[in-house]
Amino acid sequence: MGGVGVRGAPSRRAVLALPAAGVAAAGLVTTAGCTESRPAGAPAPPPVDLAAARAAARTERDLLVDYDAAIARHPALAALLGGLRAHHAQHLAALTTQVPALATATPDGVASGGGPSVSAPATPSGAATAPAAGASPPGSAGAQPGADDSPAARASALAELATAERTAADEHRASCLTATGGLAPLLASLRAAESCHADLLSLAGSAG
Amino acid sequence: MVATSRPATAPSAKGSPNAALDARAVTALSALVAVEHAAVYGTAFAGGALAPLGASARDARGLATAAFTAHRQLRDALTALLLDAGAKPPAAQPAYTLPVSPASVGAALTLLAELDDRTAASSYDAVGLVTGRARELVVDALAQAALRAQHARLTADVNAGTAVKALPGRL
To answer: Is A88 in contact with A67 (CB distance < 8 Å)?
Structure first.
């Protein structure tokens, strides 16, 4: 297999070795889209890809926040959720590696200095953490912020994360279908990953 | 595999104009068809090996059967796509060397996961080279292969942390 020599993707090791913020520091950002003249093969992504990459990065950051909140409320789920959370950090890093402009510019074109916040705050304050409204089954004890770590609340948290993952998968798929050939493979892989996450979370929820 | 990667000569000779695929797309989809031929063979082989193994092999048999059906459908859909574009899809080989011999339930599950990992990788390779309906097909093929591989690993009691891949098709 693999007769098609189009694997332009960085190796896993390369992705892992480069935290998102470090990518910009490593000098991978050459023109940062400031110049209009674009020689053939220049790194500046087409607008459709830049928009898709930004949307995908936002989705990944939102998922990181969701996972952090769930892990904070349900320490017993940390082993499972921590592994999946790490994948999303990896997704964000892969997006930033592929589209370095993500790390340097906001949608307004203003340089933001820091990279995307891969390590989101561990406990987003307050109760506004429900990632998907309506996902919690009726009759469950209801997720009291920071307090309820009952099995029912855990199952509910897993179900909410699964819903968020499915939504993310759908968004990645839609973006992938309109992206150029440069970004589409990564988006397709992200879509597959979120689908697998959702499946695993549903399994864990029904088993617990 | 691909006997002749024919240059994009009059793709409308047989198919509709929408079905046009450029040479790189034909090469990538043909490579995926070749992977699917091997997967159809491998999943059928796994199913056969699991057949006499009794009740303990029931879950694995179910996965093998579902995978066989899915790989055959993907192969047929890709073949139709290539034919519509006037290209010549690669034929199946009479037999394939399997990466794992499905001598036990565990080995059969490892084989099923490996076959789907290959489908995911080959789909990943094709995604960027096709557009429209063909892209939809390979994008969904990637996700479905990743899910099947994950199911096979979980059924084999692989730790959830390693059963799930961070970037399916890419690593």
So the answer is: yes
At A111, give phi and psi (nearest 5°): -65, 130
DSSP code for B7: -
Domains defined along chain A, listed by start? 45-108+149-208 (1.20.1260.10)
Cβ pair A6:B28 closer than 8 A: yes
Contact B147 A197 (CB under 8 A): no
> Which secondary structure element, helix H or strand E, spans residue A6, and what is its range?
none
Stated length of chain B? 171
B171 and A192: CB-CB below 8 Å? no
Structural domains in chain B, CATH included, are: 19-161 (1.20.1260.10)
pLDDT in tens, A147-187: 588 999 999 999 999 999 999 999 999 999 999 999 999 99
Q: Given CB atoms, is A107 within the 8 Å cutoff of chain B?
A: no
Dump pLDDT digits (tens) for B108-158: 999 999 999 999 999 999 999 999 999 999 999 999 999 999 999 999 998
